[in-house]
Amino acid sequence: MSVRYLSCGDTAFSVEFGNEISPRINGQVMALHAAVGRARAEGGLAGLVETVPSMRALMVCYDPLSTTRRELEPQIDALIARGLATDAASRKVRIPCCYDDPDFAPDLAEVAERTKKTPEQVIAAHLGSAFKVYVLGFMPGLAYIAGLDPSLYLPRRAQPRVRLPRSTVAIAMDMTTIYPFESPGGWHLIGRTPLWMFDQRREQPVFLAPGDSLTFERISGAEYDAIAQKVEAGTLDWSLFCSDGPGPIGP
Asked: Which of 22, 37, 103, 147 has the most neighbouring CB atoms within 10 Å?
């Protein structure tokens, strides 16, 4: 496996696995991220502070008073040389999404026109996409989720919106995302989930994580309202939407 190391100041360096966005390369990044975590749990990699995965590289952050890149890089090399298990089981997450309210999906008709589909076909293609969370970025809890059906590929909007609602589901290029807060955004808005991608009341405020496998499930407006009420009240059983919660989506 060929990797490239790049210094990022005097407290970090980057381990790059390639120059493209692909499931194979991101799988290698996440496998090294996991291998580093196991090595640290066993008492190795002294001085390492954290690793931060991106689309195609892993940033290794360290305490310069305790170690150096020269000391850590051979240890990272050794982990890679042992082999990276890129087929590790991932958490499976289901996202309920309402596509039917025009306020939730203001760009659905335009996306349908530009991709030469009906709105129902756009929804079906989104529901049928095999998504995986690659990285988190831009703001806390915002996931870059790759795997969008190729028939829905569109560039970002020429004119971004200044403000769009929290939990809006959007698409651009080969990705989908869910905006965790009210914020600006330049992607195409096709639905909304009642789930919050960031909630500081939870023990783990960020819901999604790199490596998650993700599917969307269509819900009605009434189902949306019922789940949203539980989210607002802080009474939702979040395990219903993860691989360790096999129960049906709904209140």
From this structure: 147
